[in-house]
Amino acid sequence: MRSWLAVLLPFFIITTFFVTITGVDGKSMMPTLRNGERIIIPKYETWLHRLGIGSFQRGDIVVFKPPGEVPGVERSFHGLWTYKPYFIKRVVAVAGDTVRMDGGEVFVNGEEINQSFITDFWKAQNCWDQTSSIANNARSDYSGAQPIAKSFTVPAGQYFVMGDNRSQGGSEDSRMIGPVPLEAIAGRASIVWWPFVRQPEARYDCDSADVTFSGVTEFNPRVLHKPSSWNR
Known about the structure:
Blueprint: H1 2-17, E1 19-23, E2 38-42, H2 43-50, E3 61-64, E4 75-77, E5 81-83, E6 87-93, E7 98-102, E8 105-108, E9 111-112, H3 116-124, E10 139-140, E11 147-149, E12 151-153, E13 158-162, H4 174-177, E14 180-181, E15 185-188, E16 191-194, E17 197-198, E18 201-204, E19 211-214, E20 218-219, E21 222-223
Antiparallel strand pairs: 1-2, 2-16, 3-6, 3-15, 4-5, 6-13, 7-8, 7-12, 8-9, 10-11, 13-14, 16-21, 17-20, 18-19
């Protein structure tokens, strides 16, 4: 028993308070992150933020448990119990910010943010959503069809997050599930460490959401920086 504790206790302490690893499940963060990639989360940052030291910033990619009841999200663990998986999205606005959507463009505090690092990819795929409810409203019902509010002001202690996938139905995010409280955030995605290699070119099928990759294999591990245009 003691030998097991000697192994498990340090592991628990490290993964809870210092650093942990998780995987990307789905395509909601394409083209920045791909399904199956493994990322490193510095958990100590999250604990500091919860203590009031620093905060997550616009442009950070965060991993979190979706707040409230999210239809169709719960999964079953071999029929023994159900659980709510973690989501991974980008922080678009922080507490006090007002977000507005218009034709797929995002405005924060009245200023259009530079999304070219995202939208250039989706324009090239002919998939950029500019017409749906969530492309034109900061808040919609969960189906993404029924508008609730054109603009939305983020409450204290919460974050407005969106996926980088801007195709129609490409991301379930704050436009549908609402803002994410700090206590629901596991941490910031800081480094992609797996797989070690990948093909650089991605082609996304707008109808099926299938993705194909091509190109000369390149080294994949990388630091996840927030867009320089969002450093404000």
